[in-house]
Amino acid sequence: MARANPHFLNLKSSYLFVDIAQRVAAYQKAHPERSIIKMGIGDVTEPLPAACREAMKAAIDELGSKATFRGYGPSEGYGFLRDAIVENDFANCGISSDEIFVSDGSKQDSANIGEIFDASATVAVTDPVYPVYVDSNVMAGRSGDAEGDRYSNFVYLDSTPENGYLPALPSEPVDIIYLCFPNNPTGTVISREKLTEWVNYARREKAVIIYDAAYVAFVSDPEIPRSIYEIEGAHECAIEMRSFSKIAGFTGVRCAYTVIPKALKLADAEGNEISAHQLWNRRHGTKFNGTSYPVQAAAAAVYSPEGQAQVKELVSFYMENARLLREAVTALGLSCVGGENAPYVWIQVPGKSSWDFFDNLLNNAGIVCTPGAGFGTCGEGHIRLSAFNSRENVIEAVERLKTVEL
Ligand code: MLT
Fold first, then answer.
1. Model pTM?
2. Ligand 1 mean position, distance from CA 214 (Å)
3. In this predicted model, what pLDDT tens digit does every residue of 56-67 receive, in sequence order?
């Protein structure tokens, strides 16, 4: 009989958001009359911007004509999109178009990027953390054994109320560090000074930062860096990931990109320098045939003047939801962070486990949250509310929250 990959057997039984969806489905089955407001997974609710729809339709029409039909595109993405990304998202950051790899999602990019590193690399993750960084490295065999909620070979960087949910630098050697800012799940942002400390650390220790900036569009504070490449030296030590999912409603359409500067070097077994860009290019060429043309055309339309105005409106809409949620939670006497430069509100629920609070909210208010413990040990005692919802649902959720017994 064919043997299963033993590393997969090290995974927790199911993926957090699948687990939540199953619990909610079971609850709805038992209470079909109950209206449920889903504020768990951060999935967008508002329609695609008109500029993106029009560009996508035009691209489909091109594919319908022999003269303009296109087959396989470049696996790393069309030049028109890579150029637009560089001009708009990385102006003055010293990034060139051929350092951009367009893909069908940051979830998969953040999971797949591990393939270019040695299987023995030591991984540092923040706790709480987006579960994909952990699970993908468990699948790759880097985790060691599960010990309670943690794995023996990972280095966990605690993000707690005491440190303002900004973890300290690792106190032991690590090779790969996953950082996500604005943070999922805590909604915290990182200052230029703090990010500089991370970049300096990574250069000194020859570690690589995988910088997930999927929520950067929600930052309004001008002091907060938008890209890690605004920090001197980051080109030598950081890979940045961004997504069109949340800024432009692409969670179902699927488009994202990863930036790998050519200056970023890994080492082979003899210590010779190896280009991370070349490895990823090689991996992309083998395993990916490119994001579909209509989707890339729609993504490029985000950068048109109309697209920029429309996504700005979407971001403001969700951030007003976040403001309403923060206000409601604070009125309940709970402490929270996030929701100011990020679409997630991270709430402390003292005296209760986060799964108990999840059940309490579901049973008594019909609201689905994400229990903090699902993001790691330090998430215990917290829940996350997502601001991605209709205004009607947010207003209703705010009313229902007033009735929740803490
Ligand atoms: C979340 O809710 O954390 C995100 O929607 C998950 C994701 O983007 O994959």
1. 0.97
2. 10
3. 999 999 999 999
